[in-house]
């Protein structure tokens, strides 16, 4: 899956001159958490998020900033000026985040997820030749990750399921593949053998449920006897 497959293409946008009150009302009335800010030529200028507006409210509640002497001596003139504009500006351009993380239409979903995690962002605009064409949000990725498996053309043969489960077992060190073996009947996987940890059955269930065609999972496991553990 790529960004183009996941993104929301029907977007609400504002201009840099859109009044802050209008932006806030738009977010509240349309149930969205962010709105892109576009220049007249369609280029992405920035994005206004709920967090940007909340920071403004929090800043106003915090009261006055450090005095002029402290500001000048510590070299914080630019920072204080930016803060003042954010706290008192009346337009979207005054409060928007301008350092926006973006992706292209062909960016893989896994890369988008890593980017969101690394940069601690909840959404990424999707660009085509510098123009905004959509947005991928965390919700879009969650929908992909936790979507129910698509229906197959017919039932998956039990033997195919068994081979797939065995292959998955061999890839997991915790599974003790030499101590556990799966049997499959009418799509139901039953794990037989020995289990060295109470955490293993849950993980085995998750492992089996990820295999296409599995309709249920059962356990027939027992603690391993001493000779299996190598205890004299």
Automatic annotation (TrEMBL):
SMART domains (UniProt xref): CBS
Keyword Iron: no
Domain CBS, first and last residues per copy: 7-63, 96-152
Coiled-coil features, chain-numbered ranges: none
Pfam families for the chain: CBS
Domain BON, residue spans: 157-225
Top-rank taxon, per record: Bacteria
UniProt keyword terms in alphabetical order: CBS domain
Residues annotated as signal peptide: none
Alphabetical list of SUPFAM superfamilies matching this protein: CBS-domain pair
Gene3D superfamilies membership: 3.30.1340.30, CBS-domain
Keyword Cytoplasm: no
CDD domains in the record: CBS_pair_BON_assoc
Protein name: CBS domain-containing protein
Upper taxonomic lineage: Bacteria, Pseudomonadati, Pseudomonadota, Alphaproteobacteria, Acetobacterales
């Amino acid at each position: 899956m790529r960004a183009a497959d996941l993104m929301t293409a029907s977007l609400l946008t504002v201009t840099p001159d859109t009044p802050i009150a209008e932006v806030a009302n738009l977010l509240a009335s349309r149930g969205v958490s962010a709105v892109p800010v576009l220049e007249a030529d369609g280029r992405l200028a920035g994005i206004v998020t709920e967090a940007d507006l909340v920071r403004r409210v929090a800043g106003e509640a915090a009261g006055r900033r450090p005095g002029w002497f402290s500001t000048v001596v510590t070299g914080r003139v630019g920072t204080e000026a930016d803060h003042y504009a954010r706290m008192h500006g009346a337009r979207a351009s005054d409060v928007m985040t301008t350092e926006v993380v973006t992706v292209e239409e062909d960016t893989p979903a896994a890369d988008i997820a890593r980017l969101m995690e690394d940069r601690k962002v909840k959404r990424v605009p999707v660009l085509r030749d510098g123009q905004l064409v959509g947005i991928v949000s965390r919700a879009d990725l969650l929908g992909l990750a936790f979507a129910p498996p698509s229906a197959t053309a017919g039932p998956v043969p039990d033997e195919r399921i068994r081979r797939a489960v065995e292959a998955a077992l061999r890839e997991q060190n915790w599974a003790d593949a030499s101590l556990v073996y799966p049997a499959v009947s009418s799509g139901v996987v039953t794990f037989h053998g020995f289990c060295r940890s109470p955490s293993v059955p849950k993980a085995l269930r998750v492992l089996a449920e990820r295999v296409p065609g599995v309709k249920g999972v059962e356990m027939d496991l027992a603690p391993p006897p001493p000779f299996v553990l190598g205890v004299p």
